[in-house]
């Protein structure tokens, strides 16, 4: 299937040939609590709209991590032909970015341990990055941070787990794993014993440092440590998203 997007008089065409089927149902040790295949269209500027308002929210109207961009999820995100699209660009001198947040059972946060999986790709947009992360509900950095995929869109992604009690210190950081320009599936498995990362079904790393406070998942997409060129623009696409709660009693 080809996705054709008309934005500001420009036509963007993407191939979805490498999309995969969203997994549905429980797994050994994991109970599925959220699954989103983006099967209803929402025009640019209207997300989440009626189609997604019960299952999605997002950062809106404040500065991103670098302080140079502004989270405007409603004005950056659209859904077309089964794909969520984040159209990153500069308007009126401000880089516009997005941070969609899935709502499990309608709630932001409250999950202790879980499995988080997303199918995605991105254009190599200079000056922008992903930092898709598990962030503490307490909003205290010392309670931990888990990132995957993280990295510049014009470079390579990596996985990271920050040390509990040591904000900003990596207890685990992978090597560069892959560019963003092809479709990939990233998975975080967070248990009381460890945080494990998978890319396209292959384990790429494990950290024995595990956060022990509730966290929530944010698809935080932002400027890359500074102001990108005003001409820099492009797309981050998400095919599907799934979330599971940790349920060891069901494991074989």
Structure write-up:
The protein has 252 residues and is mainly beta. The chain is built from two helices and 22 strands. The strands form four sheets. Strands 3, 5, 6, 7, 8, 9, 11, 17, 18, 19 and 22 form an eleven-stranded mixed β-sheet that branches. Strand 14 (156-162) and strand 15 (170-173) form a beta hairpin. The longest helix is centred in the first third of the chain and has 4 residues, at 49-52. It is globular and about 55 Å long. It starts with a strand and ends in a 6-residue tail after the last strand. Residues 1-17 have low confidence and may be disordered.
Low-confidence stretches: 1-17
Mean pLDDT: 92
Distinct helical segment count: 2
What is the count of β-strands? Answer: 22
In which range does the helix fraction lie? under 10%
Main sheet? 11 strands, mixed
